[in-house]
Design a protein that fits this description.
It is built from 8 helices and 2 strands. By secondary structure, it is mainly alpha-helical. The protein has 2 domains: 8-72, EF-hand (Recoverin, domain 1); 86-143, EF-hand (Recoverin, domain 1, Orthogonal Bundle), CATH 1.10.238.10. Helix 1 crosses helix 2 (28-37), helix 1 crosses helix 4 and helix 6 (95-104) crosses helix 7. It comes from Adineta ricciae (Rotifer).
């Protein structure tokens, strides 16, 4: 897949983010909000055509619309994802913000898991992720759609089964 197009995982994540009532469809206002957040322009004629004789569109229809904007969407998607994690809008993501966002997404993490996730991309080791550090993690995650970079490690025998995450930036021999 080209770097110029959104992959299916990104599109599904975006769709779910803007499907506010979680009914599997998005209405005109939700689509308009998604396009604005992704810095994509959709003209009102197209909106009227899409929603003629119906109140919402499905994920497949959303995917087709977003792929029309493919050459601009990846960077906008990165920025929007960063903003979703950066709750206080200070330009950095902390472990606390990671934990809060993941919980909102239905993937709760422990404090340690959130800190480990942050450490995986915190190249300057300042305890927070800048947009560029987040871009590294984001690109790794989106390029490895079939193998998540922060995958649970099996616990050692006779230890409680608590999820731990591996650092995707360390080699297997480290």
């Amino acid at each position: 897949m080209s770097d110029q197009t959104l992959n299916l995982t990104q599109l599904l994540d975006t769709f779910q983010l803007f499907d506010k009532n979680k009914d599997g469809c998005i209405c005109a206002n939700e689509l308009r909000a998604a396009c604005q957040k992704l810095q994509l322009t959709i003209d009102e004629t197209r909106m009227r055509d899409l929603f003629r004789n119906r109140e919402s569109i499905t994920f497949d229809e959303f995917r087709q619309i977003m792929q029309e904007f493919g050459q601009h969407a990846p960077d906008a998607y990165l920025h929007e994802t960063f903003r979703a994690f950066d709750h206080n809008a200070d330009g950095f993501i902390t472990a606390k913000e990671i934990k809060k966002t993941m919980k909102r997404l239905g993937e709760p993490l422990t404090d340690k898991q959130a800190k480990d996730m942050l450490k995986a991309a915190d190249t300057n080791q300042d305890g927070k992720l800048s947009l560029e550090e987040f871009r590294t993690l984001f690109n790794y995650i989106t390029q490895q759609a079939t193998t998540p970079p922060l995958s649970p490690i099996a616990p050692a025998p006779n230890t409680p089964s608590k999820k731990r995450f591996s650092n995707p930036f360390k080699s297997q021999t480290d």
